[in-house]
Specification:
This is Adenosylhomocysteinase like 1. The protein has about 600 residues and is α/β, with parallel strands linked by helices. Helix content is about 40%, strand content about 10%. The strands form three sheets. Strands 11-10-9-12-13-16-15-14 form an eight-stranded mixed β-sheet, covered by helices on one side.
């Protein structure tokens, strides 16, 4: 009698109930899937209950382990899953195998099809087919590649190219036939006009002043030579001065801040403007000279930003001051120069210090810088501020605005100061006051806003960490010692518009923005509404100096009268739907004030 255990090798085991349903056509498919483990046998079959146990792996000298999950078992011998051959013999079997081969071939084709569609090398070739302003390069933005598009430059619709002809060598005329200007491209005037019209919408106070005084022409006969940033906002100021009766000639106070299309729009409107974005140092002084040195035209008013125009007139054309009625200066640097001239007894005309007026200090310097510092850094470096260590040099109104913005975004902010009062303010505002040398090795960003020179020296730059960002929010490019970086051992690499990597011999890089010049106007834009406050203040200062009776202002530096400061503020209140409370006669008498102002003494600090 044959034992049951011998039947396992001699004959197929009794199949479950579902086995008879397997047709002869399906049987070979079971044979051609040896990689799949055999399904567990019913528990009622003793032969199948013990078979897996015999093939289960044994422990190292120990008792047998429990069988692993069927999916983890090696493929069992084919004979354990043998199925009776279908009727038809060997020919039917070969035919079925051929049919199965076709099926598996189709499945393999479907599986491999997506892989054939992934052609990375070809895709990269497709990317390079798209031309850009810097040549054929990848469409992806990379800080390691030069970029001259509007995103990188931000402050202007068009950017200068090194291989283009200098505007000084071009012969251009506007639609009126005049060529008394020098701009990048007069054909951009239409676009610049739209920029100016957009700015006018948020400068309603200056437009209101223009409409109120246009009939009186308080600047009739004024010949104003100006040197300021040439943006859409300053264009509104220039056109306001012209509407009030003045003749204007204008140049830029910063070689990177000019919006070319706005300069073109001013030239088209008849303003003698000499400025373009990306001027050289020689171009800068040439433009100023073209504004001042004119046959048959002599300025009698100066509007300056930084003192460069005033300095040029003193050095080259001192006789012009015989007819100058006054100077209006709006920057810390320029005001400092005026006080130096006054102290030395060389200031021969009255000068109005707009920078220290309340409307300039508390609004333009603070609120404008608080918003534009972030814009400038983001556009140029894409830096994330959260957790970054930043040192701000100077805690005046500009420094206060920068610190407040950076702190709000989670940066760790240090402050350097020379003034104990400003230093105490920084401490009370939650900032740590340090010397620059104490933190220079660890900070990620260095921002200067002092108006001084050599605030960041070569020694500081040598000690900075790799990829430290260095920028300036003051007026002049003297705050960072950029000249010391132009040496043979250091390599300059332009990675974006206004972004240079200065590379040390050991591979360390310092990211220098705008070559140390004013960051927000060189690399981004500024809030129009805040500039409306400053522009209105400048216009009133020019009107005051030009129309002041002889003897009111002597050869000294003056602040804008408090009454005018309050008038500038009152012009901007309607934009916020703000309503002032009026003093009663009794209240005004009690305070010793005029009901209509001024409401604070000149020594009051807001």
């Amino acid at each position: 009698m044959t034992s049951p255990r011998a039947d396992v090798t001699a004959e197929p085991p009794p199949a479950p109930r579902a086995a008879p349903a397997v047709s002869a056509a399906e049987a070979p498919l079971v044979e051609r899937a040896p990689h799949r483990p055999a399904p567990p046998a019913p528990r009622s079959t003793p032969q199948h209950r013990t078979a897996p146990h015999r093939s289960a792996p044994q422990g190292r000298g120990g008792p047998p382990r429990l069988p692993p999950h069927p999916a983890l078992l090696p493929a069992p011998p084919r004979r354990t899953m043998s199925v009776p051959e279908p009727a038809g013999g060997e020919e039917a079997k070969q035919a079925k195998e051929a049919e199965d081969a076709e099926k598996f071939s189709f499945m393999a084709t479907v599986t491999k099809a997506p892989k054939k569609q992934i052609q990375f090398a070809d895709d990269m070739q497709e990317f390079t087919k798209f031309p850009t302003k810097t040549g054929r390069r990848s469409l992806s933005r990379s800080i390691s590649q030069s970029s001259t598009d509007s995103y990188s430059s931000a402050a202007s619709y068009t950017d200068s190219s090194d291989d283009e002809v200098s505007p000084r060598e071009k012969q251009q005329t506007n639609s009126k036939g005049s060529s008394n200007f020098c701009v990048k491209n007069i054909k951009q005037a239409e676009f610049g006009r739209r920029e100016i019209e957009i700015a006018e919408q948020d400068m309603s106070a200056l437009i209101s002043l223009r409409k109120r005084a246009q009939g009186e022409k308080p600047l009739a006969g004024a010949k104003i030579v100006g040197c300021t940033h040439i943006t859409a906002q300053t264009a509104v100021l220039i056109e306001t001065l012209c509407a009030l009766g003045a003749q204007c000639r204008w140049s830029a106070c910063n070689i990177y801040s000019t919006q070319n299309e706005v300069a073109a729009a001013l030239a088209e409107a008849g303003v003698a403007v000499f400025a373009w974005k990306g001027e050289s140092e020689d171009d800068f002084w040439w433009c100023i000279d073209r504004c001042v040195n004119v046959d048959g035209w002599q300025a009698n008013m100066i509007l300056d930003d930084g003192g460069d125009l005033t300095h040029w007139v003193y050095k080259k054309y001192p006789n012009i001051f015989k007819k100058i009625r006054g100077i209006v200066e709006e920057s810390v640097t320029g005001v400092h120069r005026l006080y130096q001239l006054s102290k030395a007894g060389k200031l021969c005309v009255p000068a109005m210090n707009v920078n220290d007026s309340v409307t300039k200090q508390k609004f333009d310097n603070l609120y404008c810088c608080r918003e534009s510092i972030l814009d400038g850094l983001k556009r140029t470096t894409d830096v994330m501020f959260g957790g970054k260590q930043v040192v701000v040099c100077g805690y005046g109104e500009v420094g206060k605005g920068c610190c407040a913005a950076l702190k709000a975004l989670g940066a760790i902010v240090y402050v350097t100061e020379i003034d104990p009062i400003c230093a105490l303010q920084a401490c009370m505002d939650g900032f740590r006051v340090v010397k620059l040398s104490e933190v220079i090795r660890q900070v990620d960003v260095v921002i200067t806003c002092t108006g001084n020179k050599n605030v960041v020296t070569r020694e500081h730059l040598d000690r900075m960490k790799n990829s430290c960002i260095v920028c300036n929010m003051g007026h002049s490019n003297t705050e960072i010692d950029v000249t010391s970086l132009r040496t043979p051992e250091l390599t300059w690499e332009r990675v974006r518009s206004q972004v240079d990597h200065v590379i040390w011999p050991d591979g360390k890089r310092v990211v220098l923005l705008a070559e140390g010049r004013l960051l927000n106007l060189s690399c981004s834009t500024v809030p129009t509404f805040v500039l409306s406050i400053t522009a209105t203040t400048q216009a009133l200062a020019l009107i005051e100096l030009y129309n002041a009776p002889e003897g009111r202002y002597k050869q000294d530096v003056y602040l804008l009268p408090k009454k005018m400061d309050e008038y500038v503020a009152s012009l901007h209140l309607p934009s916020f739907d703000a309503h002032l409370t009026e003093l009663t006669d009794d209240q005004a008498k009690y305070l010793g004030l005029n009901k209509n102002g001024p409401f604070k003494p000149n020594y009051y600090r807001y």
